[in-house]
Amino acid sequence: MIQFLLNQELRSEHALDPNLTVLNYLRDHVGKPGTKEGCASGDCGACTVVVGELQTDDTGREHIRYRSLNSCLTFVSSLHGKQLISVEDLKHKGELHSVQKAMVECHGSQCGFCTPGFVMSLFALQKNSDAPDHHKAHEALAGNLCRCTGYRPILEAAEQSCCGKQPDQFDAREAETIARLKAIAPTDIGELNSGDKRCLVPLTVADLADLYDAYPQARLLAGGTDLALEVTQFHRTLPVMIYVGNVAEMKKIERFDDRLEIGAATALSDCYDALKAEYPDFGELLQRFASLQIRNQGTLGGNIGNASPIGDSPPLLIALGAQIVLCKGETRRTMALEDYFIDYRVTARQESEFIEKIILPRASAEQLFRAYKVSKRLDDDISAVCAAFNIRLENGVIADARVAFGGMAAIPKRANACETVLLNSPFNNATLERACAALAEDFTPLSDFRASKEYRLLGAQNLLRKYFIELQTPHIETRVTAYV
């Protein structure tokens, strides 16, 4: 059985189909059709809902953290122990919520189809910001698309509803909601079981290892932003899933003198501060990783584990020399991330083995790390090419070089020939051009709807040139950049 709050209503579910999304649960099971399906792939934001989770801050104060999510990509099993809020829950005692009023008063809606999703993103923004600036408003709304209104009045609604906000019914009930969430906090393995399908929800790494050993055919569910597409887009059935999002040990970020250790189930939005503090380019790239709704769900381990050749984080992690810890039963092994990827969607992971955490070194002053993403849109788009460069100079000579790309091969990989040219060579234009030529030895990219093979190769070479220029003239540095 799993338990969660539907606004303030306790829901206890056991026999639901584990393949059921939160979107369809709201519309078909509890009669809340305000949440709309637009794309069923996490691109349009029409299905946005907000999930509240009990959090404890550094001072020990308990509070509820509200996150916007794409309900079309969220399986109901991931709600275990949380609070689900949909657009119907905002109206209180016959009065619209302040974010709904702002959308009306700023003329932020025309046909209205996308409006509930915008409202829920604004609600989450309001809850998480006292006075959001232009950047935060854009970030919160980048995952919501509108075909008819235009975004200016919606951004005005964001400003009106978030600046000078007043307490609402959720603030008034916070203590009560915290008490209710504590009362339903999971204490044992949860389960949804419809007879022919099941999803198990462990709470510890040990339980996860035991369950995965017992069900090696199970699909591991973290954020679900990739896995859920098999159900919503390809109409496949997932007979057995194991949801890892309630394993607290795999959601920790630990800082040591020489390294960061990030649990594989840590949401990308939770990785942002730690990675930005060490590597500003990594933080900036995460801001362009899909939408905020996706970053609130998707995990760092999932972005590695799905072995996509266009995942944004693996090239950066490879260039930084990251390692992963793989767990199987009581056995753990550590390997360099670059060795994890073998071929297209093929990895070194053994049966019943899972990624427990990611280890990356702390930044040093000698490292010259930069990352770049080429995509057709600045926000909410998949990379055509993702590049990461990490060199160390000694007296004008390149003493160490790690160059990695995504989108250039069947796997994210290092550019070995390019690195060989760079290593022990002077940091000058002659070395740069030889290294650019060597990229043609490292990669024979494919053409697809994102980019031609010629564009990819030239783009990769130009990103290396851009890296050299920025290091030589840091005042023109543009950081993570899109080439449209």
TrEMBL record:
Enzyme Commission numbers on file: 1.17.1.4
Record-linked CDD domains: fer2
- What sections of the sequence does the record tag as coiled-coil? none
Q: Which EC class is the enzyme in?
A: oxidoreductase
Protein origin, superkingdom: Bacteria
Family annotation (PANTHER family): XANTHINE DEHYDROGENASE
Q: What is this protein called?
A: Xanthine dehydrogenase small subunit
Task: Name the lineage.
Answer: Bacteria, Pseudomonadati, Pseudomonadota, Gammaproteobacteria, Pseudomonadales
